[in-house]
Amino acid sequence: MTSEYRKPIPEMDEVSKTFWKGLQRRELLIQRCRDCGRYQFYPRPLCVHCWGEDLQWIRSEGRGAVYSYSIVRQNMMSGFAQELPYVFAVVELEEGVRLSTNIVRCEPDKVSVGMPVIVDFERITSEITLPKFRPL
To answer: At 69, which helix (H) or strand (E)?
Structure first.
């Protein structure tokens, strides 16, 4: 855990609480609708596909591929500047959902679209752990 995390910290609410608690346990949880069977991310109170209310939390294996990315070489915001360059990416999980994240444990110039990745966890506070991804 970082003692002085300087970037914005996500806020946990009633809808996303299960997601954040799962990350604390090093589990990546996504929602699946029991009515239509489709997955969704980010956490919501209703299914974005059929408007169903019967959502369940499923543990993802956290495997996916880089869908899109950008190497950030300039960012003067506090907390970001000391990590330059870093990779901001959209990862598509095997379940078909996409999430915004960072690619870690990899030189930025080695990242490519379609690169297989797996979830990695970064604990930033006692309550918040972030899902990041590393090459598989």
So the answer is: strand 63-72
User: Who wins on pLDDT, 65 or 5?
Assistant: 65
What phi, psi does 99 have (nearest 5°)? Answer: -140, 150
At 4, give phi and psi (nearest 5°). -125, 80
Q: What Cα–Cα distance (Å) separates residue 76 from each residue in 69, 73, 126?
A: 19, 10, 26
Per-residue confidence (pLDDT) for residue 2, from 0 to 100: 47
Which H or E element spans position 19? Answer: helix 17-24
Cα angle for residues 87, 19, 67 (degrees, 5° grid): 30
71, HSE (Cβ side, Cα atoms, 13 Å): 10
